[in-house]
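G., the chain you wanted modeled:
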Amino acid sequence: QVQLVESGGGLVQAGGSLRLSCAASGRTFSSYGMGWFRQAPGKEREFVATMSWNGISTYYADSVKGRFTISRDNAKNTVYLQMNSLKPEDTAVYYCAADRTPRRVVAARNSWDFGSWGQGTQVTVSS
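Predicted structure as tokens:
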């Protein structure tokens, strides 16, 4: 089991930027893909971005493509989500998640592929 702790959320004006971090502990971070999901009030949790264990495979939701970038630093056991050109519709609680399968070739995108979740960090974008 892996423990995940997100940070970096906050209040930002539309057009601004934030960088979320997710620190992992408890197992070999570098062997597992990592993903970001979000949940807005009254809506279901949705996929945002994912990166495979080796960083080669990445996917983004269409709604964030070109604005958000996922990255990882295996030396720091940390995955990041750089969010630029933020919009009010990006307002949500953002969760990082760890793939339950080690060394998956293609980065996972379905929530059921992820076995560990962080507690979430709130991102609020004002108009």
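The first strand starts at residue 3 and ends at 7.

Shout if anything looks off.
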